Amino acid sequence: MSENLSLKSFVVLMKASKAVQERIKKDISNYGMRTSEFTILETLYHKGKQTIRQISEGVLINTGSITYVIDKLETKGLLERQHCSEDRRVVYIHITDAGKALMDEIFPQHQQVIEELFVGIDEQQKQTLVDVLKQVGQRA
């Protein structure tokens, strides 16, 4: 009987995803943060001010949970809310100087952990991985 490569690919993808998520979660916890806090700060750090909806779509956290996390980060002085002058219903979230300083310190370390996950995988293989995962994601 032939091996079902679609099923095997799925199982390997799920196991790899779980292992990567656990490694990243462990790394982020070293900075005294939860993954949701880090991903929000990282989004603002790299993309600049965003609405709650934009953040929610970018980090795959539902808007109900994201408000709670934003409240916690705001209390810590790592981000701030800013009302839009043209439309008072719109609230932008932006990283503070303290949040930027924190990310300037910890993001390079976090990026190094990610780089270590891909040691021994050449650039062409990485691009193939990106392309294949995009196709799977689009079909899902």
TrEMBL record:
The keyword Transit peptide does not apply. The keyword Transcription regulation applies. GO terms for molecular function: DNA binding; DNA-binding transcription factor activity. It holds the Pfam family MarR. It comes from the Bacteria. Residues 6-138 form the HTH marR-type domain. Keywords: DNA-binding, Transcription, Transcription regulation. Signal peptide: none annotated. SUPFAM superfamilies: Winged helix' DNA-binding domain. PANTHER family: TRANSCRIPTIONAL REGULATOR, MARR, TRANSCRIPTIONAL REPRESSOR OF EMRAB OPERON. This is HTH-type transcriptional regulator MhqR. It comes from Virgibacillus massiliensis. The lineage of its organism: Bacteria, Bacillati, Bacillota, Bacilli, Bacillales. The gene is mhqR_2.
